[in-house]
Design goal:
The structure is a homodimer. By secondary structure, chain A is an alpha/beta fold. Chain A folds into 2 domains: about 130 residues, ATPase, nucleotide binding domain (Nucleotidyltransferase, domain 5), CATH 3.30.420.40; about 170 residues, Nucleotidyltransferase, domain 5. In chain A, about 35% of the residues lie in helices and about 20% in strands. In chain A, the strands form 3 sheets. In chain A, strands 1, 2, 3, 4, 5 and 9 form a 6-stranded mixed sheet that branches. In chain A, strand 2 and strand 3 form a beta hairpin. In chain A, helix 6 crosses helix 7. The first copy, chain A, is globular, with a radius of gyration of 20 Å. Chains A and B meet through helix 6 of A and helix 6 of B.
Chain lengths: ~325, ~325
Amino acid sequence: MKEVTAGVDIGGTNTVFGLVDKTGDVIVEGNLITTDYPEIHDFTRALGSALRSMLKSNPDLKLIGTGIGAPNANYHKGTIELAPNLAWKGIVPLADLVKKEIDVPVVVTNDANAAAMGEMIFGGAKGMKEFIVLTLGTGLGSGIVINGQMVYGHTGHAGELGHTTIVPGGRVCGCGRRGCYETYASASGLVRTVLEMLSELRDPSVLRDIPPSQLTSKRIAEAAAEKDPIAVKAMDFTAEKIAFGIINAIAFSSPEAVFLFGGLAQAGEALFEPVRKYVDSMVMPIFRGTVKILPSNVPESNAAVLGAAALAWNEFGS
Amino acid sequence: MKEVTAGVDIGGTNTVFGLVDKTGDVIVEGNLITTDYPEIHDFTRALGSALRSMLKSNPDLKLIGTGIGAPNANYHKGTIELAPNLAWKGIVPLADLVKKEIDVPVVVTNDANAAAMGEMIFGGAKGMKEFIVLTLGTGLGSGIVINGQMVYGHTGHAGELGHTTIVPGGRVCGCGRRGCYETYASASGLVRTVLEMLSELRDPSVLRDIPPSQLTSKRIAEAAAEKDPIAVKAMDFTAEKIAFGIINAIAFSSPEAVFLFGGLAQAGEALFEPVRKYVDSMVMPIFRGTVKILPSNVPESNAAVLGAAALAWNEFGS
């Protein structure tokens, strides 16, 4: 029997999952199921049934635990709490419900923590005890590892770097406050920066021909690669803001590395090079040169499943 | 034989020390020695000699380890590194030198980490696994405990919250950068705020009669207690800035409590009440009401020695 864990990533629209061995190979990939069940019990029943059938078709595999990445997850309680983008309202006892379906230990965390766990167990943070993963998507998620352990905090909700204030009185954030890190340092933050620059500056730009609702970080990165002046300035401004938050995080926990992950990180060296430059020039002298700024080393296509599975390996593996 | 640890606090001018039992009683208080030995070996010899003579006079005590709080201390290496306010230049192998004098294990950290350890072992953080201590003195030091462990980071220099940027482009800091937390949230930050308000506002104030070089946070707190309008506004502004940094720290590590310690915290409820109010109104909703803002519960008079001794108890105690 080969031991595996199940990695489950609950997204706003779809849920993906797979069975993953100790080395990070996805041994069996599940067919995605919709997240959009109005009733949580119907969702967990569908997930349980899919997992059981995968195990039945692969009798040589032994499931030792399940890890789940989900929005607004509380690690301590195994719950999803007040998730604005999911159909299930209030506090959902997800770990308990999944455990009823498939009788192995279940652990739950948010997707950024799962990404950090994936990096630690299967990716570029192997052997590191101090690092931070920033997921630069629509928002900015963060997973923080200190002394070799994920930081969940007293409430289970630690690691909300996206909602540290980097510009007092700055851009309005979805959390109801202003100037949060993620309103600048994320794919949507980059789009907002382009719109701001289109209003303030007179430079010509191909981005002036795209309706704001269709503007994406990918399109902006492409324009920057073609030396579009607004796109270039917006990328540089965004890199500075990303660096700014990294510098504050360094003063807090002095990590060995910061991994950038997600849509915006796809811009590659065009983003990493200026981020490194700004970190180096703005960081407190005592920390200069002590932190590596790296791309994630977990395959993007399977990252969510691998992160959730890594969480279970870390918790239940021998 | 009663087991004790030695707690040693190396200040810019004087070094204080004592022998401390497991319950936090200072069993023998040392006579302070000057820190101002131009040669580090002369200093460690004087300290060693003082410790040996205390033990000789108290043959019923068994020393199990020594903890040292010192500026710019590196926990991982047992060194003091590039301390601007000490006579010893470069990298000083303090732990090794002290171990040569008095043959027990030696552990070194900075004074804010020692204060946090004192709080955890002997003070108000007993039983807590997630808390932060802010020392509001001339600067702002911080000691961070996560998962029950002190955060030293990859470099050994983690916990520099005083040098997170809270006002981009703000006040000049001793670290060479601008807008650091400690330029606002500290005793000297409060003095700077008063000077700024004396220039900007036209309110009458007793503080206009004091030369800026003689203005202290204590005098400002007294004036605030007497409803001096500038002092009252400066205290409120400072409380808001203290709260601002706390809120960012909460998003990072979601602590159970934040302890305020040091000169500025002596202002008592006049400071704590507005800090709590600002934290509550500005913190991310998910963390509202989850964090206690508390005064230190380690006796101020012995805090430095107790913190250093606690460090040794935590490391070497059974």
